[in-house]
Specification:
The chain has helices at 19-30, 46-56, 66-76, 89-100, 115-123, 134-148, 160-169, 202-205, 215-223, 225-238, 276-284, 316-327, 330-347, 355-367, 375-389, and strands at 9-14, 35-41, 60-63, 85-88, 104-107, 128-131, 154-157, 177-184, 245-249, 255-261, 266-270. It has 403 residues and is of the alpha/beta class. Helix 13 packs parallel to helix 15. The longest helix is centred in the last third of the chain and has 18 residues, at 330-347. It is globular, with a radius of gyration of 20 Å.
Length: 403
């Protein structure tokens, strides 16, 4: 475990009011002698953020818009109080990282909103960057990896599947890697007849059988887009060929992922479905923290574990993600932006469940071939896809998206 006598690590959390952010703070609460929370960022969940500020007393905070920042500053006014410095917007999240100088950054702000902040962390050599926001690697993975070559920062995946791969690779030569096997539960509709998919409700899609997560990632799990994004992220994160990434449906969610080596050996990471496990590794890496979990993995309870191939007909988003990765740099950007808009449309009851994949496919067909040669062009294409995909200005929906 992390030594009690060591200097406290300074922690910055992007997306502090979301599922990953609140779980990160729960772990820090259990290990307060090891960590100082120096910076918190969120979208517009002010009530939750204010409670976090009161408890953890960060030096800096950032929110999604100038209006939310004004509201926050007003609510922080109190006689004798020393409020944190307040930033706002994408640039504010970036400035938050620069000013707070963290030792550990947890990136849990979905989509484009966390990108500049993570890039800033890489540029200023933040030692440990925990990535829970898979979208930034999907959208701009090649640019982030180029920056990492000149940086002393280390990316630590917080996604349970990629954390499992990360752990299975520990102590082994990369040259011995043959395949990465990403496992997925199959979501709530694994056994549902595809003919019935048009009748899927929002309430049904938000009931994941194994994991408790934010709304956006839960819908992505229901469409299996989440596994498609993980496919792309794994290629970027572990710098392997697409043919080396295999996907297996594993309904029990006990084996979180596996690595196959050239000698036929498989290394698997097993555990209960609890995001605090990969989060704690990102906080303490290269050591581990003791966790006070509500339950433990009981292998005797599991008389058998099951695996099956994914159904690409039932879950076209998984197929679309693989096709998008093969398109080149622009494919994952289009895929991610269109999917975020489509998921938000579904969450506000503007479209049916099956239309999510249709919207993504239309966007891929329309924008494929768009040249992307810089981070500026990544952001430009992302904005163009969002505006084309949605009949309204979608920016307001994304000021508060957290993992």
């Amino acid at each position: 475990m992390v030594s009690e006598g060591s200097e406290k690590r300074r922690v910055c959390i992007l997306g502090s009011t979301g599922s990953v952010g609140t779980n990160t703070l729960n772990i820090i609460r259990q290990n307060s002698s090891l960590y100082d929370v120096v910076a918190l960022a969120c979208g517009n969940s002010l009530d939750i953020l204010l409670n976090q500020i009161q408890e953890f007393k960060p030096e800096f905070v950032s929110v999604g818009s100038p209006q939310v920042a004004r509201d926050l500053r007003q609510r922080l006014l109190a006689p004798g109080a020393r409020p944190p410095h307040v930033f706002y917007g994408i640039d504010g999240h970036r400035d938050l990282v620069r000013e707070s100088e963290p030792d550990v950054l947890i990136g849990a702000m979905a989509g484009i909103h966390g990108l500049q902040a993570v890039l800033q962390a890489v540029r200023q050599n933040v030692p440990y960057i925990g990535i829970a926001n898979k979208e930034i690697l999907v959208m701009a993975g090649s640019f982030i990896l180029d920056l990492l070559k000149e940086s002393r920062s280390e990316l630590i995946p917080v996604d349970s599947e990629h954390s499992a791969v990360f752990q299975a690779l520990m102590g082994n030569e990369k040259s011995a890697l043959k395949n990465i096997i990403l496992t997925g539960s199959g979501g709530p509709f694994r056994t549902r007849d595809v003919a019935d998919f048009k009748r899927i409700t929002k309430a049904e899609a938000l009931k994941h059988p194994n994991w408790v997560m934010g709304a956006k990632i839960t819908i992505d799990s229901a469409t299996m887009m989440n596994k498609g994004l993980e496919f792309i992220e794994a290629i970027r994160l572990f710098q392997v060929e697409r043919r080396q990434i295999k996907i297996l449906i594993h309904p029990e969610s006990i084996i979180h992922s596996m690595v196959e080596y050239c000698d036929g050996s498989f290394m698997a990471q097993l555990g209960i479905s609890d995001m605090r496990i990969p989060i704690s590794l990102a906080l303490a890496y290269p050591k581990r923290l003791p966790l006070d979990l509500s339950k433990q993995l009981d292998l005797v309870q599991w008389q058998s574990l099951h695996f099956e191939s994914p159904d690409y007909h039932k879950f076209p988003c998984l197929r679309l993600a693989m096709e998008a990765e093969a398109l080149g740099t622009e494919g994952p950007i289009i895929l991610n932006a269109a999917n975020e808009v489509a998921v938000q449309k579904f969450l506000i009851d503007h479209i049916e469940f099956t239309e999510i994949a249709s919207i993504v496919e239309q966007a891929l067909n329309h924008f494929q071939g768009t040249p992307v040669r810089s981070l500026e062009e990544v952001i430009e294409l992302d904005e163009r896809v969002r505006l084309w995909t949605s009949p309204w200005n979608v920016q307001s929906f994304y000021s508060a998206v957290e993992v």
